[in-house]
Amino acid sequence: MSDLAKIAEIVDEGARTASAIKQFSTEKPLSIDEAYAVQALSMQRRYARGEKRVGIKMGFTSRAKMIQMGVHDLIWGRLTNTMRVEDGGIISLANYIHPRVEPEIAFLLKTDLSGDVTPAEALAAVEAIAPAMEIIDSRYDNFKFDLGDVVADNSSSSGFVLGNWFPKETDFRNLGIVMTVNGHAAEVGSTAAILGDPIRSLVSAARVVASAGEKLYAGDIVLAGSATAAIALAPGQSIETQFQSLGSVGFKVGA
């Protein structure tokens, strides 16, 4: 077994068993190419167990986060069918290590998309948009990691919740967002926080998957990235996010 395959096994087992693992960066930091190779290998293990890829998520979609992590580009991870949480559903904290949630815009594609595309070309590939939330859960101790660590860990992707789909003609560039915990506002923001316009995230998604020799497929879901800071989840919480013009999306946190 190669070193990268072994690292992929460690990452996958951490996610599968909801067990924290040590940061690889403490001994030998992974290059970005090595990290994406580990991510692909770890996801292949999930596919072999029957999970199906249903799309991708984008990360580091705010300039502040890029500066904080010392990077100049977005990162991405794969979404699978088992990560989806029904709108209004209940999650079990037993399936996570230290989960957090953040509000996002989701795109549903009607045609394949790959490579260098314009915003107009990216939008032409969209079937619909939806309010969404992503549940992130780094498998690393204390939610601490460097760039290689987080990419290898599928960019912290763990779950996602989708609201109702809306026509792509709906203006989603600068919608107000309020994320509440048990009815109390926890984060307030705007979809404009996603690169100034969420469609730019989809443009980037087409480019970064192409660099990995892949593409976005018709039927794929693409999470555009966080519009606010993430909040930590705890038992008994009811999480809801209201999106201007798009309604709401939510879930509850069980034990």
Word description of this protein:
This protein is α+β, with helices and mostly antiparallel strands and 255 residues long. It has one domain (3-254): Fumarylacetoacetate hydrolase, domain 2, CATH 3.90.850. Helix content is 25%, strand content 31%. The protein has six helices and 14 strands. Strands 1, 2, 3, 5, 6, 7, 8, 11 and 12 form a nine-stranded mixed beta sheet that branches. Strands 4-14-13-9-10 form a five-stranded mixed beta sheet, with no helix packed on it.
Descriptors:
single chain, about 260 residues, alpha+beta, Fumarylacetoacetate hydrolase, domain 2, five-stranded mixed sheet, 6 helices
Termini, distance in Å?
Answer: 37 Å
CATH class: Alpha Beta
The CATH topology: Fumarylacetoacetate hydrolase, domain 2
Provide the structure class.
alpha+beta
Low-pLDDT sequence parts: none
Helix content: 25-40%
Within CATH, the superfamily carries the name: Fumarylacetoacetase-like, C-terminal domain
Mean pLDDT: 94
- Any idea how many domains? 1
Q: What is the total tally of β strands?
A: 14
Q: Report the radius of gyration as a whole number of Å.
A: 17 Å
Number of helical segments with 4 or more residues: 6
What are the secondary-structure elements, in order, as H or E? HHEHEEEEHEHEEEEHEEEE
